[in-house]
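Reading a protein record of the kind used here takes only a little practice. The record below shows the convention in full:
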Amino acid sequence: MSLLELDDVKVHFPVRKGVFFDRTVGHVYAVDGVSLKVEAGQTYGLVGESGCGKTTLGRAVLRLVDITDGEVVFDGTDLAKLPNEEMRGFRRRLQMVFQDPLGSLNPRQNIESILSEGMAAHGIGKDQKERREKIKEILAQVGLPANALSRYPHEFSGGQRQRIGIARALVLEPDLIICDEPVSALDVSIQAQVINLLEELQESLGLTYLVIAHDLAVVRHISDVIGVMYLGGLVEEAPSDALYAGPKHPYTKALMSAVPVPDPEVEDRRERILLHGDLPSPANPPAGCRFHTRCPWAQDTLCATDRPKLTDLGDGHKVACHFAKEIEEGTVAQTRATGIEAVVGTESVAAEGPDAVASEEDAAPEQAAAEKPATTPGAVAVAASDEAAGTEPVAGEPDDEPAAEAVGAEADDEPAAEAVGAEAEGSAGEAPAEQKPVGDEPAADDAAAPADAVLLPEQPADDDTTAPAGDDTTAPAGTAAKGASASD
């Protein structure tokens, strides 16, 4: 006889509505007809995507949530029908390692208080001293020092807190431990340590595990038998090696195709199955097979009307599919795409295909080049127009810097300084009618400045573009050309 047997277990949560009169308007079918068996000393892995009911099923075994219908038989006793007082005594043999280690530990209690609380409730140990010695032994088994007894949960790392959660389950000497995502919140290196610890404890203490996870690699490593859940029901169950070697349900095939293979050649050749649509709501599940709305091999007959039962196809490989054998033999036609067209947003994008996406990517650089300006740096005109000076425009600093910085401020702008000197020689002997500083306007506006817009040496600039003290940009009147040369 199996240690744990679940027979058509259902957990339905009522949906209530109303302000003055509370009435039930529907149900959320979190778990809807699950049957499985877990043998003593075995590790049963339960996998499936988020929202399929894995955690709810584990809590239902411990009676942490109410069971709507079905039987949960543990060592010959139906837990679903036990009174609360009797169920409290059975919980010593049934323990759980929760997904969030920090959230499952009381932050106001130290580790000794957390671990001894359950022992005192179930009468384990004569006094606190005896309990403390047993707790030290358990902490040593999970790899924690004895001085951890006086510390609080926030003083430990995530992996250490998960070890404390395992120690809390072990101090009661249970027969079955339900591990709800025991390593999902941990780093990869810490995950390996916790998984190896669970295996060592199972060998030394003869424990039985029900491991709930969505990491297929972790489940394959630790489990003997694996069950796959979808939308509240079990769709496939098989030994670990057989399930990974040859999945038979379409949903399991899609899950296995999502697991990366550490071989580049195999990864390039294998088929990736992409499912059509989203997971239906458990409050309004589809009729017939729950997976027929996304199944690539859904047929017009049976799939939408009759819900398949979990059937043994041989060697303990059970599948809940009307056409599992036909799909395996290849005699059933595929009715939905499994490539990129299964997940694109619109039918028009799917009709265009990947060629349209590639053409858009090729056209992107050409469009960016067309929108880019022809020349990024602007031409800096100094003192007068090109026609009056008889010189070509000089490419200097960018447009957003004043022209005064290009005149005598930088030693590299020799062409600009020569243009200033040439203009200054032509007008050195006569005073201009109007004096305008060069640095007041940007370089783009200076290109259209009048010919007499030369900064006289005796008048400093009004703005902040005055040259540094080290640059001799001022000279006596009548020697503008020499001043320009000196600045170079």
In short: Residues 345-361, 372-457, 460-488 have pLDDT under 50 and may be disordered. The radius of gyration is 40 Å.
